[in-house]
TrEMBL record:
Keyword Cell division attached: no
Organism the protein comes from: Salix viminalis (Common osier)
Residue ranges of every copy of the Gnk2-homologous domain listed in the record: 26-131, 136-244
Residues annotated as signal peptide: 1-22
Record has Signal as a keyword: yes
Name of the featured protein: CYSTEINE-RICH REPEAT SECRETORY PROTEIN
CDD domains, per database record: Gnk2-like
Alphabetized UniProt keyword annotations: Repeat, Signal
Stretches for region Disordered: 256-275
Biased composition annotated in UniProt, kind: Pro residues: 256-267
Length: 289
């Protein structure tokens, strides 16, 4: 366990204050416990503040591969937290996203002990329980509300197969490196884009298992949907029929093999409004956009 020092906190509060305006990350979804709450000025809140400034200050480090986890305080007021930036985002975009998230989260979830917020570029999470233990790690789902109209079963299969393929690739990266992979596939004159990611500290077999678990949950949220996200603490998957990552940057971050083909024509609409869904009451004030 890392321990937090007051000097670090003061320093990071200071640096927060002088950070210049950066482009806001693209907000996707958040979840916030509304039954598990803390009271204002409690020890939990103080620990949470320490945690958030530690996450913010560590996001400026260059050698973390977009990931940092830390805890603050002691049981029963201990707070666990982490951030994970999408594998293709630069250090500066990652840092800006995490900084933004630490503030945005408290606005959206001012007294929740358990919270997760997602942007296109990064994820921030904290909890009064160690979400790295499987027991407390419940998935958050997020799906595109639009359905594919052409051969939905084949689309589901293509999504699952492509995600499985790149899971192997992402998981095989050495521990500590980015465990991240993207892959395109052709679908009905459109391009399916898929992404998988584990936290860099996750060993290969655990990463593979986590991703397989996430893929197996797709039926809970995303059957026939044009896009979907399944988020666990240690891994996440996403697919869409539009470009939601920077393919150039992704190719630089990790090498990508050529696209895979599936089926020919008809056409389908591609409006993207979104809806959130969760399967656990810890995440019962999930807000959709
Ligand atoms: C919390 O602390 C601040 C500053 O110490 C004080 O102004 C505020 O009244 C306190 N709030 C509660 C609910 O105790
Ligand atoms: C990162 O956070 C730890 C506490 O977890 C703190 O001791 C350390 O100084 C931070 N590093 C940076 C660069 O802010
Ligand atoms: C961060 O994660 C590592 C491994 O996943 C774990 O050993 C460590 O205890 C965690 N740190 C904190 C502060 O929770
Ligand atoms: C997945 O990988 C298998 C074997 O490596 C390959 O035959 C198949 O075409 C791939 N499919 C997709 C959708 O990537
Ligand atoms: C994508 O990444 C490349 C390489 O890092 C960068 O030059 C380009 O500006 C990025 N494009 C967008 C739209 O961010």
């Amino acid at each position: 366990m890392d321990s937090l020092k007051l000097s670090t906190i003061l320093l990071s509060l200071l640096s927060l204050a002088i950070i210049t305006q950066a482009q806001d990350p693209k907000y996707l979804i958040y979840s916030c416990s509304d039954t598990t709450t803390f009271t204002r000025n409690s020890t939990y809140q103080a620990n949470l503040n320490l945690l958030l400034s530690s996450l913010s200050s560590n996001s400026t480090r260059n050698n973390i591969n977009g990931f940092y986890n830390v805890s603050a305080g002691k049981d029963p007021d201990e707070v666990y937290g982490m951030f994970l930036c999408r594998g293709d985002v630069s250090n500066s975009v990652c840092r800006d996203c995490v900084n933004f998230a630490t503030k945005d989260m408290l606005k959206k979830c001012p007294i929740g002990k358990v919270a997760t917020i997602w942007y296109d570029e990064c994820e921030l999470r904290y909890s009064n329980r160690n979400f790295f233990s499987a027991e407390y790690d419940s998935p958050v789902f997020f799906s595109n509300i639009n359905y594919v109209t052409f051969e939905p079963e084949r689309f589901n299969q293509l999504v699952a197969i492509t995600l499985s393929n790149i899971s192997t690739r992402a998981a095989s990266a050495p521990t500590g490196d980015k465990k991240f992979a993207v892959q395109q596939a052709n679908y009905n004159l459109q391009i399916l884009r898929t992404l998988v990611q584990c936290t860099p500290d996750l060993p290969t077999p655990d990463c593979r298992r986590c991703l397989a678990g996430a893929i197996s949950k797709l039926g809970n949220c995303c059957d026939g949907k044009q896009g979907g996200i399944v988020i666990f603490a240690r891994c996440n998957i996403r697919y869409e029929l539009y470009e939601f990552y920077n393919a150039t940057a992704a190719a630089e971050a990790v090498p990508a093999p050529p696209p895979v083909a599936l089926s020919p024509p008809p056409a389908s609409g591609s409006e993207t409004r979104r809806k959130g869904k969760v399967d656990n009451d810890l995440f019962n004030c999930l807000v959709a956009i």
